[in-house]
Q: What sequence folds into this?
């Protein structure tokens, strides 16, 4: 059985949960079993938000992952807290806009992406989460980019559908930045 | 610029209240919970009672109150702060005891507790922050939610059929003997903020004089769950909320008034 | 540079950039910084200290008690007056 | 949406799946009070119940919600509420009254870290409250603990039939993981509203029937005893019919692992890894906690060297397991209390160390 | 004597209400709980709604209410009758639903429930029997106990320090939107009894018209725990109790009045 | 008065003896709400606490009473409340908060017939509530079950020391027999009020100390876990120090009878009669229910042919006995639920029939 | 004996002897019996039926609804009038 | 060990509980261990009241007695409900004022006393309970009459001390009626 996990973390408000939901939706579209599990502080704003997406071609089993094999870390605090938890051989995509000079532990492949800047360039600083997701897909293609693009539409709350274009742009920018080829 | 200035040439006009800890408050930007806190802290400073004050935190966005006020604190269960305050005050009659409660906490689950603390004329002070919504649990209807107001549990707007009518706490408590001081204030301009602070000071003075139960209701903005900017929120308070919740002094033990702000 | 009569100190880490102080300052003394603080907020900053009348509107409206106000001792006659 | 297998499944949170499951199962009357981590349930009900002619009432408290349920159940419906640990504590008197009045209802508890206000992290420390609770007196709730969003959806629907059949409160025991986790769900179609026409139902007019009294006051001890014995009889029947559990893992295990709910999800993964390490472990996952699968565990206790109980608590279900095992083999416990998650990695190392210790014997 | 009379020559002027069962009520001699019951039964008869009425009994001396009213009944937990009534009414909107509650039940443990049922404008009727004492549990202080009144838990008389102030339920509820009818009545003379019955009829009519929440407070004698004869008790009601609890009509959906009895 | 032995003893009801015991033990703050069959406790407190400078507050409800206790305990006293079954159900959230805040208190439960409103007859059906209760989360009360008016008096006094020592809620579990029964009591002298000067106490001024926070909210799961582990450590200590039980009867029994509280009184008489019939039975009477005398029962389980558990319930403590016995011998149960008393005559015939059945084996 | 215009029937088993009817009867029609009923109460009894004006004061005040009042059909003109 | 029990029953208001308490107090005065246990319906008035007094020269053991050996039954209902519970060889004192023609089961010695009338003669119908208690003592002298007389004072609530004289008169009247000799 093929089992993949992605752990995403950032500041509340950075869209980490949504990015994870989009990934989960894409996995569902791809015919995978999937589980998305969030954890955050009770305060409304400013606390940390994290989520874990587990995908498999059979039952996903534990939605909880002790040592993730793919990490998307969107700020310095997340890097500090969660990078040490990375599994041997894991890949970590780090937002260099807010965590400029992350450590590079042995056995973990660290990719840095200036997500805020790229998002701004794509049209909205709020899409940094999708830049990061795009970057992840380029280096760890757990699902196809096209499925994620389709999922962006599914996952956005109705009142934010209008921002889908910007989001897809951001997603592709991240994908490209991490070496992916979007000429599909 | 500061480097150029010799601070010894200056004297303080306003400095951070001693009754505050250094902890950074976790409220959303534009949330007036912080403002209400600051006024309470200033009043405690001015009355010089910080060291003998016990703050009873409730359950709502202000649950961490105990991290912010630089005095002894007890964290109460949802709605039960007045009962907890009663316990503290009975054991420590020399302490200055106040609760800090939201409208869900005080007017929904905790209604009996606050009315009965008032009827017992408990010498405590209640800071009642009314933002017409359950903030902490993410924007559900509160008893104080206005008619027509959309919340996550009144998705079609509050109506007689869905949610019932808006509860007015000061009006209710104005009928309870045992209340020494009772006022409603808003926080939407510097002048109104000063009036609010004045009411808070009176409320604590009532307690210090052993006059009985005191409560100040503060209409407060929740930009987050009202889905408004703070400016829209302040306007909504001034134009809509105050129509249901008129500011005023309902009971004043020094001479009863229905005095306006 | 002349020494201003009033001096504002803003605790930038504590500031949430809510703009209440800015909006309520009758003299346009304050503005948001373009930089971010640790929590991702653009903090308020003093842009025209010399125009400050010491009216305390900013201080009164700040929900996070991040503003401190000082007055030059030698500046007799000028008192920090209540707004409105 | 359609997944690759052609099945139409929707990515939903446990809370939403639970609420929609209830509507599908015939729920039309929901009385609730918000509390994290289950706010999405009342919110979903407020939004969607009117679509099927149902009613959402936001009670002033969990106490009031329970008694609104009592009134609604007395009137013939199978009402529902949902809450999380502190709120469930407040419902204890009301649940006892439901039992005393012999009324059915459905209660969801998305357990959070305790005691007190605690936190909103996942926890299983309400096992006693769920299985030995329902306030004062001898009664308890029939309690079911799903372990996936799909199962939550399904049990939430089934709960209404179970409650009606046994005329008992049914508790769905989830936690902050199950409540907030999103997984694809094959949605049940929305069924008809359940009939109000029940033997005990008040209201609807006296034409052609005697007046009815729903009551839990029985001054004469012998009469009260009859109520208790009737209740016990319904429990005994449920015990005979409603024991539910699942097993997975080695067919000739040296170790039986017992875990429920989200902890069972974790254990499932860890047991697979343990097999890779050569440990023959089997997971028995109680789905029904009341009635508890004593017999099934007892059978294994004769055959394994060790039973390992895993809980997100200081050890509560472990007592039921010990009652099942009755000394037939050692029962070991591993748990954490107050919110820290137990990961599959943690679980594997517990299994390995237990296996190691036993092997050395 | 009856043997000499031919009953067929007579027509009934007053007969036992159909809304009563044959069960003998268990109240003490001179207790006016029975009187309150009888009035409710007469009103149900006159409105012709008995068969579609659901009575919610509470916990107090009137706990056996369900044995006395000849209609469907639900026995609620102490204080929670308005919540139970809400549940019944929401499921059976065509039923006439009323609660029968004492002052301990309604004003002490059940205060939040009654206020919130009122605020939700639940279409239910509350019969509130205020005898200034916990009758069933043998005479402890109730929220409605008068200042100075001796009870088993205010052995030195209720005072601000021991027990606090007297709570006035009608005055409190008069501040709640959602209330359609609200009145206080006494039962100390035939005329007053008729006025009370009239109020009860209006309360049920409010429900029948879907006007919202209705409540009638009846000042009631507890000769047993007041340690009085019924005559002393009636005098105490007329002379002392009504000073704290003035009879009157507080809300009337057909035209709001503060009308006296 | 002086009895013939020269001792000064007063004929008192269990309720009065309990209240006076508390005052003697140092209780000065009582928060209560009337409920039969324990009304004489709040009434006694209202009358007599002022004599020693204490305070009686009649709360608006049992919920409020519990939180007044929380405030009072936070301020440094060991507060007390008393109630009966439905009221204790309403206290569950508050007791969980006491545990979360690590505060001591004393709670009396004079159990009555349930579930629901039930009746006011003697019952022991709150055993689970008393031993597995205290609301959500892993905590519980230390629970003691006296069996005479004198013992009630003494435990009521001792409870304050126990609560203070372990910083835990202590529950005194009585029932309608013990509450209302009158027996001669050798009264303890009224002690001093307990000191308010405790490491956690708020109020009394900040001079010379840091500000204090009494709290049960711990957002970080690992911190919450520490609270739970501290609580568990205090429990473990109590488990080591506070197990209390009494034994009476045959020294080489064929049957061990386990019963507590008023049922133990009945069993004591029945065992005497059984001896006359040639049955060698021994009564083990747990006084501490939490911590439970598992070890003592286990020892006998190795030596007797049968353990018989007697309860005024459908069977709750019997689970703890089974946990102690762990299959070493059969555990039989006899109980009645909802108020009917079990007389010594009933008990004797149960003992005889059990003995008969076993002999035939 | 003349047929009285009004007739009172008192349910003696239900009566608690509280005396409310007796006290409120303006005509002295009623009195307590010296006998006991099953519950140990002295029930009310009619001692001067012929004086009854049908005013219903007794009926109105009886907490236990033990009194029924009948009027002779032929007694036109006389209506049961409300007291006070 | 010598163990005695007395079961008393009557209508609420007949003073059954008080009579039992007086007996218990007298037993305490006599140096016995004693336990008094009441049971009644929750209604305030009119229901049944019963109590059991167990006395012993050692620990009393069970305060609950299944088959009492001495019964004091003050009304017809009590006779109906409780006389069948009497133990073999028991004695039952029955108030013939309210239970005029009681059954006389085999193996139970039944004594009838017109307690209401005797009480009235002694000065107050309310003292029927003490008449009954006196009668019991004459036929089953569980404690000395003098100790009971002393206990009457102890047990009466303060505001009813004034009635002690009548009570003692009633007690003696019952004692005499059942054949006792009060010329102490
Ligand atoms: C017994 C219980 N029920 C429910 C909750 C969940 N809860 C936490 S805060 C809250 C409402 C808070 O609203 P409010 O008091 O208005 O405060 P705000 O956040 O708006 O300032 C609720 C329902 C709880 N913690 N405990
Ligand atoms: C939860 C709970 N708490 C307490 C009680 C005990 N209790 C029964 S009736 C009552 C008070 C009744 O007083 P009131 O409502 O005034 O009725 P009354 O008897 O005076 O008519 C109390 C406290 C209970 N049954 N349930
Ligand atoms: S959610 Fe609302 S009340 Fe809570 S902190 Fe944010 S703005 Fe303030
Ligand atoms: S004190 Fe007044 S003038 Fe000065 S910055 Fe503040 S608001 Fe502006
Ligand atoms: S009011 Fe305070 S928090 Fe808001 S921007 Fe100004 S300084 Fe910052
Ligand atoms: S105790 Fe009081 S309220 Fe209860 S029945 Fe007797 S007189 Fe009525
Ligand atoms: S109807 Fe009037 S006159 Fe006749 S008996 Fe009754 S009160 Fe007396
Ligand atoms: S009022 Fe009724 S109960 Fe009272 S004495 Fe008259 S008939 Fe009897
Ligand atoms: Mg709010
Ligand atoms: Mg009352």
A:
């Amino acid at each position: 059985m093929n089992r993949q996990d992605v752990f995403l973390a950032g500041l509340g408000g950075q869209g980490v949960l949504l990015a994870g939901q989009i990934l989960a939706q894409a996995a569902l579209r791809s015919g995978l079993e999937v589980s998305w599990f969030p954890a955050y502080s009770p305060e409304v704003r400013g606390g940390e938000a994290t989520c874990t997406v587990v995908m498999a071609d059979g039952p996903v089993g534990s939605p909880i992952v002790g040592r993730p094999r793919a990490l998307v870390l969107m700020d310095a605090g997340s890097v500090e807290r969660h990078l040490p938890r990375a599994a041997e051989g894991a890949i970590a995509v780090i937002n260099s806009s807010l965590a400029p000079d992350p450590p590079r532990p042995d056995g973990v492949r660290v990719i840095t992406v200036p997500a805020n800047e790229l998002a701004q360039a794509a049209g909205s600083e709020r899409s940094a989460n999708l830049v990061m997701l795009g970057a992840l897909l380029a280096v760890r293609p757990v699902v196809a980019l096209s499925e994620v693009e389709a999922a962006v539409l599914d996952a956005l709350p109705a009142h934010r559908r209008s921002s889908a274009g910007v989001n897809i742009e951001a997603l592709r920018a991240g994908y490209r930045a991490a070496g992916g080829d979007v000429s599909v | 610029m500061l480097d150029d200035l010799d601070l010894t040439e200056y004297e303080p006009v306003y400095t951070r209240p001693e009754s505050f800890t250094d902890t950074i408050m976790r409220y959303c930007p534009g949330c007036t919970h912080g403002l209400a806190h600051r006024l309470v802290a200033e009043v405690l400073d001015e009355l010089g009672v910080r060291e003998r004050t016990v703050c009873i935190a409730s359950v709502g966005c202000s649950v961490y109150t105990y991290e912010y006020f630089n005095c002894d604190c007890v964290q109460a269960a949802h709605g039960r702060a007045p009962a907890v305050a009663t316990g503290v005050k009975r054991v420590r009659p020399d302490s200055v005891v106040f609760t800090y409660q939201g409208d869900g906490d005080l007017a929904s689950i905790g209604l009996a507790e606050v009315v009965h603390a008032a009827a017992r004329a408990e010498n405590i002070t209640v800071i009642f922050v009314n933002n017409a919504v359950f903030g902490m649990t993410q924007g559900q209807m509160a008893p104080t939610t206005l008619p027509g107001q959309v919340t996550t549990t009144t998705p079609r707007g509050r109506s007689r059929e869905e949610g019932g009518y808006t509860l007015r706490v000061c009006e209710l408590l104005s009928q309870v003997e045992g209340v020494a001081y009772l006022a409603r204030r808003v926080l939407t301009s510097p002048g109104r903020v000063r009036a609010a602070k004045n009411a808070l000071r009176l409320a604590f003075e009532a307690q210090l004089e052993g006059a009985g139960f005191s409560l100040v209701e503060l209409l407060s903005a929740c930009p987050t769950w009202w889905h408004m900017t703070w400016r829209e929120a302040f306007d909504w308070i001034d134009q809509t909320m105050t129509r249901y919740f008129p500011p005023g002094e309902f009971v004043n033990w020094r001479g009863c008034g229905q005095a306006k702000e | 540079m002349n020494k201003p009569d009033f001096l504002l100190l803003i605790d930038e880490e504590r500031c949430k950039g809510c703009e209440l102080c800015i909006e309520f300052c009758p003299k346009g003394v304050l503005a948001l910084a373009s930089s971010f603080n640790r929590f991702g907020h653009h903090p308020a900053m003093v842009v025209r200290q010399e125009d400050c009348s010491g009216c305390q509107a900013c201080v009164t409206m700040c929900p996070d008690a991040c503003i401190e106000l000082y007055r030059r001792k030698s500046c007799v006659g000028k008192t920090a007056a209540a707004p409105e | 949406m359609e997944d690759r297998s052609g099945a139409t499944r929707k990515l939903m949170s446990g809370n939403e799946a639970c609420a929609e499951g209830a509507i599908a199962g015939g729920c039309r009357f929901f009385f609730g009070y918000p509390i994290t981590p289950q706010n999405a349930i009342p919110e979903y009900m407020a939004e969607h119940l009117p679509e099927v002619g149902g009613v959402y009432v936001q009670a002033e408290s969990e106490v009031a919600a329970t008694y609104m349920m009592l009134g609604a159940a007395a009137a013939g419906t199978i009402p529902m509420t949902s809450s999380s640990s502190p709120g469930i504590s407040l419902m204890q008197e009301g649940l006892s009254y439901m039992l005393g009045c012999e009324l059915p209802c459905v209660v969801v508890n998305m357990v959070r870290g305790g005691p007190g206000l605690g936190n909103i992290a996942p926890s299983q420390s309400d096992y006693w409250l769920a299985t030995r609770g329902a306030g004062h007196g001898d009664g308890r709730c029939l309690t079911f603990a799903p372990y996936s969003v799909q199962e939550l959806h399904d049990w939430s629907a089934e709960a209404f039939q179970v409650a009606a059949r046994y005329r008992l409160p049914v508790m769905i025991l989830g936690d902050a993981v199950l409540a907030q986790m999103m997984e694809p769900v094959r949605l049940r179609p929305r069924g008809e509203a359940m009939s109000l026409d029940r033997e005990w139902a008040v209201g609807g007019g006296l034409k052609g029937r005697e007046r009815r009294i729903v009551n839990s006051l029985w001054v004469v001890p012998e009469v009260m005893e009859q109520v208790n014995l009737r209740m016990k009889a319904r429990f005994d029947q449920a015990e005979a019919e409603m024991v539910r559990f699942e097993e997975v893992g080695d067919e000739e295990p040296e170790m039986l692992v017992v875990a429920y709910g989200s902890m069972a999800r974790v254990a499932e993964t860890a047991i697979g890894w343990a097999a890779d390490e050569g440990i023959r472990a089997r997971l028995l996952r109680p789905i029904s906690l009341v009635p508890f699968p004593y017999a099934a565990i007892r059978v294994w206790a004769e055959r394994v060297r060790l039973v390992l109980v895993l809980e997100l608590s200081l050890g509560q279900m472990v007592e039921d397991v010990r009652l099942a095992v009755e000394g037939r083999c050692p029962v070991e416990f591993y748990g954490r209390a107050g919110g820290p998650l137990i990961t599959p990695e943690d679980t594997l190392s517990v299994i390995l160390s237990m296996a190691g210790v036993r092997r050395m014997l």
Q: What stands out?
A: The CA atoms of residues 36 and 42 of chain C lie 5 Å apart. Strands of chain C lie at 6-10, 30-32, 44-46, 67-72.
